[in-house]
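ok so i was messing around last nite and threw this chain in just to see what happens. nothing serious, just curious
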Amino acid sequence: MPAGPIALHCGELSISIDLAHGARAVSLRCDGEELLGGNSADPVEHGMYPMGPWAGRLLGNEVHADEQSWPMPVNYGPWALHGTVLDRPWEVVGLMQESDHAWLAARTELGEHWPWRGSMELTWSLHRSILRTSLILRAHGSEFPAVIGMHPWLRKTTRFGEAQWQARGAVMAERRPDFSLTGELVTDPPIHGTLDDAFLVPDARAQVSWGHGLSLEIHQSHQWFVVYDAHPQLLCIEPQTGPTDGLHDGAFGSPVLVSPGKPLTQHTAWTFRRG
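result:
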């Protein structure tokens, strides 16, 4: 494993990836401006990292399947949050840096706490003004439920202006105070304030704009996003393959099952536009 973060660059975009701590991006710059931030050194609270085999809060801090339950480690306050891979070491499986294209592929196991054998693969790819991330979750034995996604901590204030987000046609999954979902969708949801909520977005796109100087379109392969904007200086727009607590039968149907030969894949394009 490299001793420090691996840097990729293409055009106005550059990114630094720390394989030792979740294969996360610890820096993402557009035209030299840093867009990622953090609230602390806690693995949950900084950079941009993959989530899996679940994303978000796991109600009861345990996973259920075939009438059995397995407790998951509590890693953030009272919660088992954002899966098992966000702070694991990853290994490089591919790396290329050319003038108009750069990419890094990495892989890790799901770890000893997850009751099934499995692994995740993550590819970071830069091409012109687009960052692409690709996540693949594989089962190496029995099938298991899964939700995967990407978690960026974006700075609200940059030299380009103040961040605002939007998602056309988005409806919000109504939740209870314990973050369990009621199954109802709020058709005219708030988009500012103290959100920590899941949104179903028909065209699978969300946008962040920093004033009139820079915009970021997030277009993914699935329709779920989680938005966290309660921090005064940071904004999280998290593309996910399923809703909050999506490992369990719940408000929005049965979970996706990953099995040998049937991986769960998420592709996301992060497109930057100036002006």
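not much to say yet. The chain has one domain: 6-274.
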